[in-house]
Specification:
The complex is a heterodimer of chains A (about 525) and B (about 525). Chain A is mostly helical. Chain A has a domain of about 300 residues. In chain A, about 60% of the residues lie in helices and about 5% in strands. Chain A is built from 24 helices and eight strands. Chain A has a three-stranded antiparallel sheet with strand order 2-1-5. Chain A has a three-stranded antiparallel sheet with strand order 6-7-8, with helices on one face. In chain A, helix 1 runs antiparallel to helix 23, helix 7 runs parallel beside helix 18 and helix 10 runs parallel beside helix 13. The two termini of chain A are about 40 Å apart. Chain B folds into two domains: about 300 residues, no CATH class; about 110 residues, no CATH class. Chain B has a five-stranded mixed sheet with strand order 3-2-4-6-5. In chain B, a hairpin with a 4-residue loop joins strand 5 and strand 6. The longest helix of chain B has 24 residues. The model of chain B has no long low-confidence stretch (mean pLDDT about 95). Classes of the chains: A mainly alpha (about 525), B mainly alpha (about 525). At the A-B interface, strand 4, helix 14 and helix 17 of A face strand 1, helix 1, helix 16 and helix 21 of B.
Chain lengths: ~525, ~525
């Protein structure tokens, strides 16, 4: 019965995720496509999606990691130019992972949908992993299901579950490796897998080298065991286990090979090549350094270093943006995660062995992308860079539930914040991720004279205009259902799941209460 | 493979650090301090602040110039930093390298490091966190830069932190000697900057409250009077000084060179954005604070501060005494709100920097509160330390220091090399003087590399008096901002008939240079008549 319940739960989750997958019916041909259909009103509204998809497309269709001039323009402005060749500006990992989905999609006539489906599957895996990890860390089954729901539906993870971004893959690496390392005694294979995953993570997105660093430390702690005994600190090293780290070699070789083939240099990182603003008649045009919005044919002299993108001077704006800003802040987009502090505090009081991992990973994630010059993540929905952290915070929310369920006020606030968070993130999931940062919205408002919204109210406007970028909505056609109707159908799935799970866990259905009544009666009888 | 470490060995190792912490910290910080000074001296950044050059000139005028003496300490700034430069300022290298002032900052830097350690020890914080607190203070490029300059920040930090430290000790043990020590250090801080005056009042309130709470009105009255008697001595002497030298006890507040007068000019230009606006005042200072501290330590420091206030380990007296550490925050916001201070921070209603270094005033407090937090975080302390080190890695990789930007591109620095270079090249005859207003052009005087005795300025008594009446008889050159009535020289000579005997020889963004025409050179005879009283 329990297994059937779990199957129903995860099938429901996948159904909701599927409803959010962005797409248009048909397969896109990058050398001849309708911009209005695929970009403005379609799933490729933002350049990171186009950039990664272009590489997948190029690998399959042209058998090359260098973009043909006929398809390069699709990736602009996130397009690189090196030695007279158009190349990707992104780490290649995600584009390779999308390949099976692309091939499957192509077979059924929806190549882009197929690619997005891969990300959706990873989102589902992440939901399972959050559930499993919460349980492993001592929460009740219902609390762990709630944590899973919080992660996938009550944070911007939902909006990015059906579009071509790297965040769910990173999250998968983080959570799956953490799950492996939670074992009391990990073996050689476990560690080899973890090191392989961590190194692969860097190919997915270079900043993962920082975000996944705590995993490396955790893995190391499994090789060098430390015990605090009465008079001594005892260290036990398993030297053979160090060999497991060699599993990173194939990944490093792949990395070098890709860089050599694509950029002509083993150590050239994707983001450090010259970026192209536009491609016209097969020629690259670069952003003019003098005037805004002007493109020049000559490549401006630019010294791009990977570390140069991160500056401490950005921290004030970055921390503000990720936490309380109206355009991206957790407080606005996923306030339910505030309850993770209660979970963290509970683990702190229990002197939990793994709390440091949560603190370090979330801390490095937040700080890294606060150092970043564009903490907004371009046009995005919520703070997308923090999706890996949302997963860990959701686990802590799950842990906090044992405290929340015993306090009426906390319970009330939790429900309000949860419902609000799910509502907000479903808006992004079924409409669009393309919300501009406040600073750009104000500029655009000033220039156009028309108010540009920059919070989820922009997405409400899209629903009012009967617009959704969801593949199934577009497949069914607006004649079948309107956008608001589609939104409520999608919203109903997490809502029903929440009502069912928390209804039980918080005793709203008096299921557990009946036991207490029986117990009380027994006590009365004894007396 | 197994190995073990005896806890006693670790304890012994920690004890070694604990045995002579002052010597250890002082030794390490002294090396850091000297290396940093050499670095900034060699790359020429150490003297980029206008104020640094002015501080050095003020001290130098006491011992060298057309009119020397203690009166040269003036009233523009409080006197202690200049008094502390006197033992070395006579030496040309110490003067022109800035070392005369920097050495005070460097000693203060070491002292603050030691005080942070001692403060944390007094709070019962463990050894690791104590050293971590020192690290947070030291691993800050803004602090390292300011300690390499002849600015007053580090000296102020040292005296204020020392005052707060003894206040904390008094709150714990109620020994009167601690009150006196606290009063002594705070008294010294009142002779450095007006931040010290606020700390004096703030600390007096803390002392009164704690004493009243514990032992009633009479005790509170006695202890507060004792504290204020010593604590306000420097203020009293400063008022007397202003009375004696400038015939006005409030000259430092209302005089033409006071901060009030300078702010009035900025206000008239409509650029005193913070005046009368709590929000802008608070935000401006928070931004300055965040930029100076690299944000993350400030955030952790705030959490630590709130944690300390809630910590049941401490008595209420200790918590109240620790509030002295946040007095710079309150003072700066109040000063901005009332228009007594000016602060430009890029991104807050302006795109330039000015006085952003004020944000550094909370650095010892941030270090202390952050270290306290680390101590209380038990098994997750290393995560927080790692996050902090990660941030600092980028701070050092990017060489991020707003205080340097302020000096280089902000309003706190002024590139006067063209004017000073001209003077250096052309003012060669030892018997020819330059008429210049030190209040406006101290940076030029300093950067010219010429002896102070070559300049006739508003502090040179009869030389100034005679020169503004008949400039052609007394000086060969006049450096002035033409038509600018805030330039004292221009204001005084604009109607002088002799001015027509000068010709404009060069024009620069910060000043113009006039030279006595060759045909009038014979009229020049800059010798004081016999019997002229220098002190008139």
């Amino acid at each position: 019965m329990k297994i059937i319940g779990k199957i129903i739960f995860f099938l429901s989750v996948f159904l909701a995720i599927s409803l959010s997958i962005k797409g248009q019916p048909g397969s896109i041909d990058l050398s001849n496509y309708k911009p209005n259909y695929w970009i403005e009103n379609g799933p490729f509204e933002l350049s990171p999606e186009r950039g990664r998809f272009t590489l997948t497309y190029s690998i399959i269709e042209n058998d090359s990691t260098i973009f043909d001039t006929s398809i390069a323009g699709f990736a602009a402005p996130d397009l690189g130019y090196k030695d007279g060749k158009f190349v990707s500006l992104f780490a290649p990992g995600l584009s390779y992972i999308l390949v099976p989905g692309y091939i499957f999609g192509k077979l059924i006539g929806y190549n882009q949908f197929g690619a997005n489906l891969v990300v959706a599957l990873f989102a589902l895996f992440n939901t399972c992993l959050v559930c499993s990890l919460t349980r492993r860390l001592g929460a009740k089954a219902m609390a762990s299901f709630t944590a899973a729901l919080v992660f996938i539906f009550a944070t911007p993870a939902f909006s990015y579950a059906g579009s071509l971004y790297q965040h769910h893959i990173t999250t998968f690496i983080l959570l799956s490796s953490f799950l492996i390392l939670l074992k009391e005694r990990v073996n050689f294979i476990d560690l080899a897998i973890v090191f392989l995953l961590i190194s692969s993570g860097v190919l997915i997105d270079y900043p993962n080298a920082v975000i996944l660093f705590p995993l490396g430390v955790l893995a190391l702690s499994k090789i060098v065991k430390f015990k605090n005994k009465k008079n001594i600190f005892k260290f036990k090293i398993r030297p053979l286990m160090f060999i497991s780290a060699l599993s990173v070699i194939p990944v490093i070789m792949l990395f070098f090979a890709y860089n050599k083939v694509t950029y002509g240099n083993y150590l050239q990182l994707a983001g450090t090549v010259q970026s192209v603003a536009e491609v016209k008649n097969g020629k690259p045009f670069f952003e003019g350094s003098e005037k805004e919005d002007s493109f020049v044919e000559e490549s401006p002299e630019e010294d791009k270093s990977a570390l140069g993108f991160f500056e401490t001077r950005n921290l004030i704006n970055g921390l503000y943006t990720h936490t309380i800003s109206p355009d991206r802040g957790i407080l606005i987009y996923a306030p339910v995660l505030l309850f993770s502090f209660i979970g963290g505090y509970m683990l702190f009081n229990k002197k939990d062995r793994y709390l440091w991992f949560f603190v370090l990973t979330v801390g490095l994630n937040v700080v890294l992308y606060s150092l970043w010059g564009d903490p907004w993540g371009g046009w995005a929905y919520g703070s997308r860079y923090l999706i890996p952290s949302y997963s860990l915070m959701a686990i802590l929310v799950g842990i906090s539930l044992s405290k929340i369920r015993t306090n009426k006020t906390l319970r009330l606030f939790f429900m309000i914040f949860l419902v609000y968070s799910i509502f907000v993130n479903t808006l992004g999931a079924v409409t669009s991720n393309s919300n501009l940062p406040k600073i750009e919205a104000e500029e655009l408002t000033f220039r156009s004279g028309k108010e540009q919204k920059y919070t989820y109210f922009r997405n409400i406007d899209l629903l009012n205009e009967d617009k959704s970028k969801a593949f199934i909505y577009n497949l069914a056609g607006p004649q079948s259902i309107n956008a608001w109707g589609y939104f409520f159908i999608t919203l109903s799935i997490p809502t029903i799941l929440i009502v069912f799970i928390l209804g039980q866990y918080f005793n709203y259905f008096n299921i557990d209460l009946s036991k207490k009544v029986i117990n009380k009666n027994k006590i009365n009888l004894k007396n | 493979m197994e190995f073990s470490i005896k806890k006693t060995a670790i304890r012994d190792f920690a004890e070694k650090f604990e045995k002579k912490p002052v010597q250890t910290i002082a030794g390490i910080l002294s090396i850091v301090s000297v290396v940093t000074f050499i670095y900034y001296y060699q790359n020429g950044l150490g003297l980029k602040y206008n104020d640094a050059r002015s501080h050095l000139d003020i001290a130098r005028r006491v011992v060298e110039g057309l009119k020397t003496g203690a009166a040269q300490l003036g009233s523009v700034w409080l006197p202690l930093p200049h008094i502390l430069m006197l033992p070395t300022i006579w030496n040309d290298f110490f003067w022109h390298s800035g070392l005369s002032g920097a050495i005070v900052s460097m000693i203060s830097f070491v002292a603050v490091g030691v005080l942070i350690y001692k403060y944390l020890k007094a709070l019962g914080v463990g050894v690791l966190a104590r050293y971590f607190g020192v690290l947070v203070f030291v691993l800050n490029i803004n602090v390292l830069y300011m300690q390499s300059t002849a600015m007053t920040e580090l000296l102020l930090l040292a005296t204020m932190t020392a005052g707060s430290y003894y206040l904390l000790l008094w709150s714990r043990k109620k020994r009167l000697v601690d009150i006196l020590k606290s009063a002594l250090w705070i008294m010294l801080s009142t002779a450095i900057r007006y931040d010290g005056w606020f700390l004096l009042g703030f600390s007096a309130m803390i002392i009164s409250y704690i004493s009243f709470r514990k032992k009633g009105f009479e005790e509170a009255e006695g202890v507060t009077i004792l504290f204020l008697t010593l604590g306000s001595l420097a203020i009293f002497l400063w008022v007397i000084w202003n009375w004696l030298i400038f015939n006005d006890p409030l000259y430092f507040i209302l005089g033409p060179f006071s901060a009030h007068a300078q702010q009035a000019q900025i206000d008239a230009a409509g650029e005193l954005y913070t005046k009368g606006n709590w929000f802008i005042s608070t935000i401006s200072y928070i931004y300055a604070l965040m930029y100076n501290s690299y944000s993350v330590p400030a955030v952790f420091g705030l959490i630590g501060f709130l944690g300390l206030l809630k910590d049941k380990i401490f008595k209420i007296e200790v918590k109240i005494a620790s509030l002295a550490l946040i007095s710079p925050f309150i003072f700066n916001v109040l000063a901005l709100y009332f228009g007594h201070s000016v602060l430009f921070v890029q991104g807050v209603l302006t795109d330039t920097w000015f006085n952003v270094r004020y944000g550094i005033m909370l650095m010892p407090s941030i270090a202390i509160f952050f270290a306290y937090l680390v101590d209380r975080l038990k098994n997750i302390k290393f995560s927080v330390i790692a996050i902090y080190l990660f941030v600092m890695l980028f701070a050092f990789l990017g060489r991020d220091a707003v205080t340097i930007d302020d000096a280089l591109v902000g309003a706190s620095g002024k590139n006067v090399t063209e004017v000073s270079g001209w003077l250096k090249e052309n003012v060669t005859n030892e018997k020819e003087y330059v008429l210049i207003a030190a209040a406006s052009h101290d940076a030029i005087i300093f950067s010219s590399g010429l002896p102070m005795s070559r300049f006739v300025h508003e502090g040179t008594g009869p030389y100034w008096k005679f020169a503004i009446e008949n400039p052609e008889k007394w000086v060969r050159w006049i450096v002035v901002r033409t038509y600018d009535m805030s330039d004292w020289t221009w204001r005084e000579i604009v109607d002088a008939p002799g001015l027509s005997k000068f010709e404009l020889v060069d024009h620069y963004p910060f000043a113009d240079i006039y030279q006595l025409k060759d045909e009038f050179l014979d009229e020049m005879d800059p010798v004081l008549p016999p019997g002229t009283k220098m002190n008139e």
